[in-house]
Amino acid sequence: MEAPAGAGRGVKMAARWGRRERKIQRKVNIVFWFLIVIGLVFVWFCLSFAFKGIGSFGLKLFNDAKKEINGEEPKKSKECEDDLK
């Protein structure tokens, strides 16, 4: 933002400060996002152990459901067949 031609000293100083504030704001914005990314990586590593447990539980449910849908039944042992006779 440039000061208009013929503007007084105060207007020129305000325009100069506005440019400085925008430069500082850009630097702070970069630092802010860098800290956000670092924080998210930290949270990811902290929760990775929980993700393994949740994933194994979900995989177990998925495999059980897949077996039920496909109609695969566990193999019967001979002992069970003998008991039925």
Number of E-type strands: 0
Mean pLDDT: 76
Q: Helix fraction? A: over 70%
Total number of helical segments?
Answer: 2
Write the layout of secondary structure elements.
Blueprint: H1 9-70, H2 78-84
Structure in a nutshell:
The protein contains two helices and no strands. With 85 residues, it is mainly alpha-helical. The mean pLDDT is 76.
Describe this structure in words.
It contains 2 helices and no strands. By secondary structure, it is mostly helical. It is rod-shaped and about 105 Å long. The mean pLDDT is 76.
Question: Keywords for this structure?
Answer:
mainly alpha; 85 residues
